[in-house]
Specification:
Layout lengths: L19 H4 L5 H11 L27 H20 L5 E5 L19 H13 L4 E5 L6 H6 L6 E8 L23 E6 L5 H19 L3 E5 L17 H18 L4 E5 L8 H13 L20 H15 L9
Parallel strand pairs: 1-6, 2-3, 2-5, 3-4, 5-6
Helix pairs in contact: 3-4, 6-7, 6-9, 7-8
């Protein structure tokens, strides 16, 4: 099946490598130096202090060559997308291959080295004086690195839809994890049961994300996530169909149109079924840009499971609201 041609509405832009001073908005100088050295083949005796085993080449035990440079390009792509939107050069920007949400300030894990999402947010706050930024993470895994960076920051609303951490890496992102200090209430985990399908996501957007976003009134919206919530992904256990990704794109478009005059950055990465991935990624973009979605042709071979998990999702939302009620007026309505 061929994808529709939409070259006339896209401009392809080559991203730059980011400098150390930009990376240091989030990451420590020592960590950056160690990654650079390891990526060039140097032996780092205490490498596991900086990198989890899953981020090393299993055949060699080393970081794959040029990984650090590639990670700088990813950060540069995300940063450029944010700058173009912040400076009103484009309304929406999409960065393919961005969204390293597991990376922490001094530790790489989950295939992530530099947390480009956090770097962009820090840059937007520093250079453009933005006071309210909203991140929506729709990856199947909890965005633990991004959560950690902004866990005490009331200027960043982080909403994370992910599979129950009792059943999936990284094993955190429970509903009671709502932030700390002044950031309490601004870290929101929407925990999805195994098999949760399109209706579960739609319910959470309409019943939780929209009301809180409308109350928060962000100046800028960033969404991250790829195809791994699909029901045929081999590493996860969620139930989104191809049309579900279009729905997510639509929801982000509606939110950004209402709240930020359309200003949004979409970061698309992840997904471990290569047959599914291009169709899910395309539909995320199609929903965001209000262009025609690709049909759910995969159903012809492997029909999605019956919609399950909605009652569990509603109960999770009810429990979550107990933790959030003191922080959000809309929860008490």
């Amino acid at each position: 099946m061929k994808f529709p041609a939409y070259q006339d509405i896209f401009a392809m832009i080559e991203p730059p490598l980011v400098e150390d001073k930009i990376l240091q908005l989030v990451h420590t100088p020592e960590y950056i130096q160690k990654l650079r050295a390891a990526s060039k083949g140097e032996t780092i005796d205490d490498i596991y202090r900086y990198v989890s085993q899953d981020n090393l080449d299993p055949s060699t035990g080393y970081i794959a060559p040029d990984t650090e440079e590639a990670s700088r390009i990813i950060a540069g792509s995300t940063l450029l997308a944010g700058k173009l939107v912040a400076e009103n050069k484009v309304k929406r920007a999409i960065s393919i291959g961005s969204g390293m949400h597991h990376a922490k300030p001094a530790y790489a894990e989950g295939f992530c080295f530099y947390n480009d999402i956090a770097i962009l947010v820090k840059y937007l706050k520093k250079e453009y004086k933005l006071k309210k930024i909203m991140i929506i993470d729709t990856d199947a895994h909890a965005g633990n690195g991004t959560s950690e960076v902004f866990y005490d920051d009331p200027q960043v609303l982080f909403i994370d839809l992910h599979q129950d951490p009792l059943t999936l890496y990284p094993g955190c992102g429970f509903i009671e994890e709502v932030g700390e200090g002044k950031g309490k209430g601004y870290n929101i985990n929407l925990v999805l049961p195994v098999g949760a399908g399109n209706k579960c996501y739609e319910y959470l957007f309409e019943g939780v994300i929209f009301p809180i976003a409308l109350e928060f009134k962000p100046e800028f919206i960033i969404r991250y996530g790829g195809s791994d919530p699909h029901y045929q992904d081999p590493l996860t256990n969620l139930g989104l169909s191809i049309s579900g990704f279009y729905m997510i794109g639509q929801k982000i478009k509606i939110l950004s149109d209402i709240l930020t005059a359309g200003k949004s950055v979409d970061l698309i990465l992840s997904g471990y079924n290569l047959k599914v991935l291009p169709f899910a990624w395309f539909n995320l973009i199609a929903g965001l840009l209000a262009i025609k979605e690709i049909p759910d042709y995969l159903n012809e071979e492997n029909p999605p499971p019956l919609e399950i998990g909605l009652s569990q999702t509603k109960e999770m939302a009810r429990q979550l609201k107990k933790y959030l009620a003191r922080y959000w007026r809309c929860i008490n309505k």
